[in-house]
Write a structure and sequence with these properties.
Blueprint: H1 6-9, E1 18-23, E2 30-35, E3 45-47, E4 51-58, E5 60-65, E6 68-73, E7 77-80, E8 86-90, E9 96-102, E10 108-110
Antiparallel strand pairs: 1-2, 2-9, 3-10, 4-7, 4-9, 5-6, 5-8
Length: 116
Amino acid sequence: MLHLNGNEIFAADKEGFRRQIIDEGEGPIRSYSYSPPRNDECVYHCHSESTEIFQVVEGEGTIVVEGEELHVSAPDVIVVEPGEFHLVRSGPDPFHLLAVVSPNLDDVVLDGEASD
């Protein structure tokens, strides 16, 4: 069993960023908390063979999947299928998500890169 305090897993650094791996063992999933800096976005990417599930825990932001912008807020859940390019964009207020990637593969492909 693992018990994590929500205030600790979402505590941002001085730049306002937080990404903490919760489970990256040899098991079938990888999970992490994600709190992007305000008014920022991650790199547009996909997971060639993994599904990524986001649950918004607090705040509002945008998740772009295959060019479609989805305004999300707590407690929305977004499921991104393998091969779908996506990014997370924060707004002016704190934005906290939980993410689960399954299967637990190192299969990130950046936009413009060829997939294996």
